[in-house]
Amino acid sequence: MSGFLDGRANLAGKVAAVVGGGGGIGAGVSLALASAGVDLAICDIDATALAETQSAIGAKGRRVTAMTADATDEAALDAFYDTVERDFPRLDILVNVAGGTKRQFLSEASRADIARDIQRNYGYVIQSVQRAVPLMKRSGEGGSIISFTTIEAHRGAASFSVYAGAKAATTNFTRSMAVELGKDRIRVSCIAPDTTLSHGNMAAMPPSFAEGFMKLPPHVQGKGMEMYIPRREQPPVDALADAVLFLGSDLSTFVSGMTLHVDGGTMAAAGFLDWPFGDGFVPTPLAGTLARLYREGDEA
Ligand SMILES: NC(=O)c1ccc[n+]([C@@H]2O[C@H](COP(=O)([O-])OP(=O)(O)OC[C@H]3O[C@@H](n4cnc5c(N)ncnc54)[C@H](O)[C@@H]3O)[C@@H](O)[C@H]2O)c1
């Protein structure tokens, strides 16, 4: 039985392409779309995850095409979109999930590191959108393009500078395409996560970070997130998938060129922290907290 929201969302019977749709956050997005009645074309660099997600989508009764592809390889992207054109009569939704980085100061980055971060966070998005748009125009009904960016596109991010710059470029490319494609009723938007547990999120940090974290007592492990995220918990993959459902559906028909921040409030907090001992969200700890954290003679 179809409910009020199903009718308003109008997702059933649509077709989506998800780049990076095989594993982790991408799998969450693909499966949520499939559960909403959307048929899918997915590609991913991880063949194992891709095969698992392909069969999970099939088990939901949706049509699915899957291709192992590195989104930064133009020939692979061509092959993926050729398949989308061949296998589906229409394309309504494109989600560019693939992206990533590793923590590195610019002084440590090689030319290859820099080129890779630009390509996997901005370059391929242009190529993917350019290939998807003619397919989206075929139905004459418009569509929705959604690219994953990050909170780092909206603040200075030391040791993530190339990633931050590339994602900011994707953000403004998105605004520009929203204007360019408005007449075709194609909406173009970004989703900016902050910190969601994923393979990519862990791979961005040095191995010593995860090792050090695991050595902390369990009651201390969550404290950093509680200080940092106003909602006091990390957004799960489903929270990002729900944002895709909104932006991909008719519920967001007049939303275009915008970034949806799915971060539990960290963008709004803008660097204010919920310091320990009850200070609330403030830019620096209050005097009593400072006195408890640091005693005279302590090392800085
Ligand atoms: N996880 C977070 O906390 C976080 C925070 C901010 C932004 N983001 C953004 O969200 C998106 C997904 O995040 P993630 O990387 O942490 O999720 P993830 O590790 O779950 O990766 C999603 C999928 O993308 C695939 N993928 C990665 N690079 C690819 C490539 N070059 N070609 C094809 N597939 C590729 C992976 O194999 C995986 O299946 C990225 O664009 C990332 O920059 C994530």
Structure characterization notes:
The protein is an alpha/beta fold and 300 residues long. The protein has a single domain, classed as NAD(P)-binding Rossmann-like Domain (Rossmann fold, 3-Layer(aba) Sandwich). The protein has 13 helices and 9 strands. It has helices spanning 4-9, 24-35, 47-59, 74-87, 111-137, 161-180, 199-203, 207-214, 218-221, 223-228, 237-248, 266-269, 287-293; strands at residues 15-19, 39-44, 64-68, 93-96, 143-148, 186-193, 259-262, 273-275, 280-282. The strands form 2 sheets. The protein has a 7-stranded parallel sheet, with helices on both faces. Helix 3 links the parallel strand 2 and strand 3. Helix 2 runs parallel beside helix 3, helix 2 packs across helix 11 (237-248) and helix 5 runs parallel beside helix 6. The longest helix is centred in the middle third of the chain and has 27 residues, at 111-137. It is globular. The N and C termini lie far apart (62 Å). Nicotinamide-adenine-dinucleotide binds next to helix 2 and helix 7.
